[in-house]
Structures are given as structure tokens and as C-alpha cells.
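seq:
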Amino acid sequence: MSFPQHRLRRLRRTESLRRMIREVTLTADDLVQPLFVCPGSSIRKPIDSMPGQFHFSVDMVIEEAKRVYLSGIPAVLLFGLPESKDALGSGGWDPEAPVQQAVRGIRAALPELTIITDVCLCEYTDHGHCGALHDKTVDNDATLDLLCRVALSHAEAGADLVAPSDMMDGRVGAIRKVLDDAGFSEVGILAYSAKQASAYYGPFREAAESAPQFGDRRGYQMDPANAVEALREVRLDIEEGADIVMVKPGISCLDILYRVKQTFGYPTASYQVSGEYAMIEAAAQRGWIDRKRVILETLTAFKRAGADIIITYHAAEVAGWLQTERG
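struct:
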């Protein structure tokens, strides 16, 4: 028998053959579009460190949500910037804060769009940390009550899923109990379960105006070197009532994403974070990469590793590409 007997290149020869045997296919249904909501009106302000992304006032974010929905994206993830900040982040649970207003407006305009809200305090505290402080250290247990207030205010506004991103121990169970006791048992929890203390978050901290004023977040976010600990974090969140778990950031955590999906078989999200987005955009502007191919290849890698949901700032644009290619 002549060598080689098996010629794998036979099924790579044409685009139609490659499509027929493709193991993973990226679709718009896999994607979530993050949006930043700020005070004011008629505001669509570019974010310098994230080309193509904007701060939107409530009226403008509703229009942007319509564009996202028409692209085929099933969900948006809302982050808010408050009018003012204080030590406890009380703007986070203000019923008239930008996120709460945006949830009500988007819900009225687009009843079929899934609305996810980030639940954290770093955008709302004057010190930039993710919870209440005690001697310049985040007090885990004191923070739980504050996070519950934020989550409940989002549920009252009409959110479908609340997404605690703070990495406090026990916050999923605390939020689940508060939501259930208040009659919001149908509101789900998308937990940032394995969130690393990553250098990839830099542009987001400019976008959300949430950089810590002292120290860093390594005291409560995960050490990027730890994978077994990530599985423990995910297990605890599932036991406490999380409906979806998340691994963050994206490209540097593909191994953890794979292990989480294989271990738990649970709905799993991956977040292509701001630094990943900004690096692609910067390299593309210099002409160093094929932007479209790199974006699609990266998002496909997340899905191949096990992501059911991919949160990416490229979501609406990618959905347009996929619609054109398959339409």
C-alpha cells in the first residue's frame, strides 16, 4: 500500500468541503455585546483606549441596543458610570442610575433582547475597589449586602441576568437568596467565577473609570497561575446557585475554559476582555494582522475550548459578517 493512505488535505481543498466537516461553527447566537452607559443625553463619546467603543447616554444606548439586536445578537451586557462616587458605591443601587434607566428603556423598546447587568462596585466607589473598605482592605462580608442591593435594583428594573464580577466569597449565594426572597426567582445569575487579576483589563478601567486609587485587586481576584483553584471557584458558584459560570480573561485562559466545561458541563461563558480587544485593534491599525481573520479565529478558539457564550466588544460587527457570509 502506498504512503500516505490517509490524505487529510483532500477535505481541505475547497471552502465548501471545509464547511461540511467543520467541527465548530461560530454564530451570532454565541455572542454578547458589552455597552457602557453614562449620565447625560445625546452622548456617544469614543473611548480612546478601545477604538470603536463608546460611552452612551441612556437615550443613545437604547438606539445602540436596537442596532445590536438587529444584527442578530441575543444579549447585551451593561456597565454603568455614575453621576458621583462615594466610599460604598451607593450609586450602584440608585434606581435612577444610568444602568437602571437603560434596563427599563431597552426592555420597553426591545422586549426580546436579553439584558445582562454587571454587578460590582468598582465603577461606583471613590477608591476604585470592588467593595467596602476596612483599613484599606476590602471587607468581603460587608460588601455582600451592597452587591445584593445592586443586583436587586437591576432585577427591579427588568434585567434578565445579573453578573457579579467582584470576586467576593459567597456573593452568588447571597444574591440568589435576596432575589428569591424579593420575588425575582426567574432572574438568573451569570457569575464571573474564575476571574483572574489580569493585566488585560487596563483599557476597561479607563472606559469604566474604575482604576483603584491605591493598591491593586490581587487580594480578591484570582492568581493567573492557578487552574485548580479556578475549578474550586466554579464549583462553589454552581453550588451557591449560579446559572452560568464565566472564565475571564479569554485568550490566556483557554486551558481553564476547557477544564471548566469538561468538568462541570455547565453553561459557560468566556470574556474577550478590553486588553485583548485593544491589542487586535492596535495591530490592525498598524497593518500587522488581517483584522477580520484574527477576530474570527480568536472567537472560534473560545467556542472550540468550550464556551457557550462569548462576551466580546466585536459582537455586533462579527454578527454582521456572519450574516453576510451565510445570507
